[in-house]
Amino acid sequence: MGRFGKNRERNRRAARWLLGLSLAAMVFFAVRLAADMVYWNDPRHHDQQLEPWMTVGYVARSWDIDRRSLREALELGPAPDHKSSLGQLAHDRNMEFDAYAEDVMQTILQEKAEAE
């Protein structure tokens, strides 16, 4: 087979692996996109009542408002941890969740009024 034949076969094998990995990544992201589309097109996930487990991003998506403006209105600033739940944020402010949720809901309603 010679020196060049071995390199050609090695290159083909590498190309097949890269193609396989690319297809696996494409399938992964396609499934994720489809799952998100199904989830957020369900009307039960729109304008949800606030719960302690929800993040600011989830609330913004549910109520169809900009996440950054909601974070700014709640005076959270650009935090490195975007996964803090409303329950954790209430705890950090030494507030009961219901009182904090009421403040967040007022902020949401103001943001929606400004957007219209």
Properties at a glance:
mainly alpha; elongated
Provide structural commentary:
This protein is mainly α. The chain is 69% helix and 0% strand. It is built from 5 helices and no strands. It has helices spanning 2-40, 56-63, 67-73, 86-92, 97-115. Helix 4 packs across helix 5. The longest helix is centred in the N-terminal third of the chain and has 39 residues, at 2-40.
Secondary structure layout plus pairing:
Blueprint: H1 2-40, H2 56-63, H3 67-73, H4 86-92, H5 97-115
Helix pairs in contact: 4-5
Instruction: Catalogue the unreliable spans.
Output: none
Percentage of β-strand residues:
under 5%
Q: Mean pLDDT, as a whole number?
A: 88
Structural class, by secondary structure, is mainly alpha
The rounded Rg comes to 23 Å
User: What is the CA-CA span between the terminal residues?
Assistant: 72 Å
User: What is the helix fraction of residues, given as a range?
Assistant: 55-70%
Which shape, going by the Cα principal axes? Answer: elongated
Q: Please trace the helix and strand order, writing H or E for each element.
A: HHHHH
Count the DSSP helices: 5
Number of strands: 0
